[in-house]
Amino acid sequence: MTHLLLATLLVLNKTDATLAFVDPTSLQVISKIPTGNGPHEVAVSTDNKIALVANYGTGPDPGSTVSIVDVASRKELKRLALPLLRPHGVFAIGPHIYFTAEGSRVVARYDVTSGAIDWISGSGANVTHMVVVMPGEKKIYTANIGSDSVSALDLANAPRAIALRQIAVGKGPEGIDLSPDAKEIWVSHRGDGAFSIIDTSTDAVKQTVATGTKMANRVKFTLDGKRVLISDPPSNQVLVYDAATRQLVKKLDVEKGPEGILMAPDGKRAFVACSDAGKVIVLDLESLTITGSVATGNQPDGMAYAK
């Protein structure tokens, strides 16, 4: 009999090329399944049935597939071959899962209902890494490491016309997140240890904040929109910022190589994938302390949550 969980934490182990299914309460690994090489990011569809894994590949061997996984049975249903290189960032919204392809400078969309990729559009920039989508799916933002920019794709008149705008930010923008009220985009820069704040009503940078990090890797809002977490892998720290004042609240010393950050649906905990430690740690968002951890495999990074 299949062991079903009320909730499941999905964790990708990059060097193992596996997807781990974790009980988020007991912090036990329930099972692991193989993926394509170098899986970097994963998203669960809004109906909690399907997970899409972006198989990024390794340094010498660019990936060109995404794995479609049935969450309940914990099985890979299919591995879609793409006419694209290095799929990476993912974002689930409505009946769709959007993903970037770094090597092809595009954003693509997987339609969960039809089980097919139904839309691809160029980002106009290099190393298109992470992606977020506005409510209503009328605008997409990508963080472009190689162009020091964020692409804003306005889909109001798509597919007949797509307005594309490049927003200059700091050096090597990598992490990106949308505030819960959809008014701001925060973008962390891996190259200069700062983050940019973009006003989604104007698509202009309204503030740049220096963090003093060695590498601002991921940025993630708490569900109430009050705080923002930024991971700094070389320093083994997670920085907590006040979203309204832009002030640093606390620097948390964590396990080695913190990268991916995921908020639990109840808004009380954050999961941080500490890649070099092979663990996912749990942060209590009220006390800002580490309350647990689970060893998932080698180089955990991308995570998702199925309710």
Describe the protein:
This protein is mostly beta strands. About 0% of the residues lie in helices and about 60% in strands. The protein contains no helices and 28 strands. The protein has a 4-stranded antiparallel β-sheet with strand order 3-2-1-28, with no helix packed on it. A hairpin with a 4-residue loop joins strand 5 and strand 6 (about 60-70). It starts with 7 loop residues before the first strand and ends with a strand. The model has no long low-confidence stretch (mean pLDDT about 95).
Instruction: Please report the distance between the alpha carbons of the first and last residues.
Output: 20 Å
The main β sheet shows up as: 4 strands, antiparallel
What is the string of helix and strand elements?
EEEEEEEEEEEEEEEEEEEEEEEEEEEE
Helix content: under 10%
The percent range for strand residues is over 45%
- Average pLDDT across residues? 96
- Stretches with pLDDT under 50, minimum 5 residues: none
Q: Tell how many strands the DSSP assignment holds.
A: 28
Strand order of the largest sheet: 3-2-1-28
What is the global morphology? globular
| Number of contiguous helices | 0
Structural class: mainly beta
Task: Report the radius of gyration as a whole number of Å.
Answer: 18 Å
